[in-house]
């Protein structure tokens, strides 16, 4: 990964309270895992930003190196890597994801 790509990813992660690196967009997710991640965030009703990794090969590979996590989507909250869609689902079902959002003061979308 180039330093430039790493710096861009780092800036995105730090500049957005809730950020989802995904395949596609929230309106048109391009894989089932990204679709599920969006559904979870939408159900929680939180404001979030997304990055379509299909639009940028550097970020598509770079985010895997950045997080040391092999798959996309990837969720970051308050600059911290949370996990992919399976971890999001487990946390959501246990009530932990809603609790995390509340603890971090993440505002409801509205």
TrEMBL record:
Keywords: 2Fe-2S, Iron, Iron-sulfur, Metal-binding, Redox-active center
Location of the Glutaredoxin domain: 18-82
The keyword Metal-binding belongs to this UniProt entry's keyword annotation: yes
Pfam families named in the record: Glutaredoxin (PF00462)
InterPro entries: Glutaredoxin, GRX_PICOT-like, Monothiol_GRX, Monothiol_GRX-rel, Thioredoxin-like_sf
Gene3D superfamilies with a match to the protein in the record: Glutaredoxin
SUPFAM superfamilies, per database record: Thioredoxin-like
Entry superkingdom: Bacteria
PANTHER family: GLUTAREDOXIN FAMILY MEMBER (PTHR10293), MONOTHIOL GLUTAREDOXIN-S14, CHLOROPLASTIC (PTHR10293:SF72)
Family to which this protein belongs: Belongs to the glutaredoxin family. Monothiol subfamily.
The name this protein goes by in its record: Glutaredoxin
Taxon lineage: Bacteria, Pseudomonadati, Pseudomonadota, Alphaproteobacteria, Sphingomonadales
């Amino acid at each position: 990964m180039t330093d430039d790509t790493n710096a861009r990813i780092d800036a995105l992660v730090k500049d957005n309270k809730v950020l989802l690196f995904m395949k596609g967009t929230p309106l048109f997710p391009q894989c089932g895992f990204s679709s599920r991640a969006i559904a979870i965030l939408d159900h929680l009703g939180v404001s979030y930003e997304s990055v379509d990794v299909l639009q940028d090969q550097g970020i598509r590979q770079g985010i895997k190196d950045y997080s040391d996590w092999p798959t996309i989507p990837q969720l970051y909250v308050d600059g911290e890597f949370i996990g992919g869609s399976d971890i999001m689902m487990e946390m959501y079902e246990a009530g932990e994801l809603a609790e995390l959002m509340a603890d971090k003061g993440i505002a409801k979308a509205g």
